[in-house]
Amino acid sequence: MVRTYQDLGGHHIQVNTIAKETLRDAQKHPLKYPTLMVRVAGYSAYFIDLSRPVQDHVIARVEHNV
User: Fold this and answer.
1) How far is residue 61's CA from residue 58's CA, in Å, rounded to a whole number?
2) Which of 28, 35, 25, 27 is nearest to 51 (CA)?
3) pLDDT at residue 27 in the model
4) How many whole angstroms separate alpha carbon 47 and alpha carbon 38?
5) In a domain, 1, yes or no
6) Which residue from 11, 38, 44, 60 lies 20 to 30 Å from 51 (Cα-Cα)?
């Protein structure tokens, strides 16, 4: 899939391999996930350090809603 994306001219891809349920739980219980790292927009960040709107955006991408 990634090779085809590149072959078709894609230059940038972000991959998060974490379940949306884990991300939702991290929103509710951030102290349980101090080292949970995700890709945002060209950078990595600790999920619990992100603002709620950015967290929601990461979750939406995992759910394929963005």
Assistant:
1) 5
2) 27
3) 96
4) 6
5) no
6) 11
Q: Which residues, other chains included, contact 23 with Cβ-Cβ below 8 Å and sequence gap of 6+? A: 38, 47, 55, 58, 59, 62
> Could you report the per-residue pLDDT of 13-57, keeping only the tens digit for each?
766 678 899 999 999 999 999 999 988 877 889 999 999 999 999
Residue 7 counted as domain residue: no
Amino acid at 50: L
Is 46 part of a structural domain of the chain? yes
Domain extent, residue 57, equals 13-62
CB 38, CB 59: distance < 8 Å: no
- What φ, ψ does residue 24 adopt, rounded to 5°? -65, -40
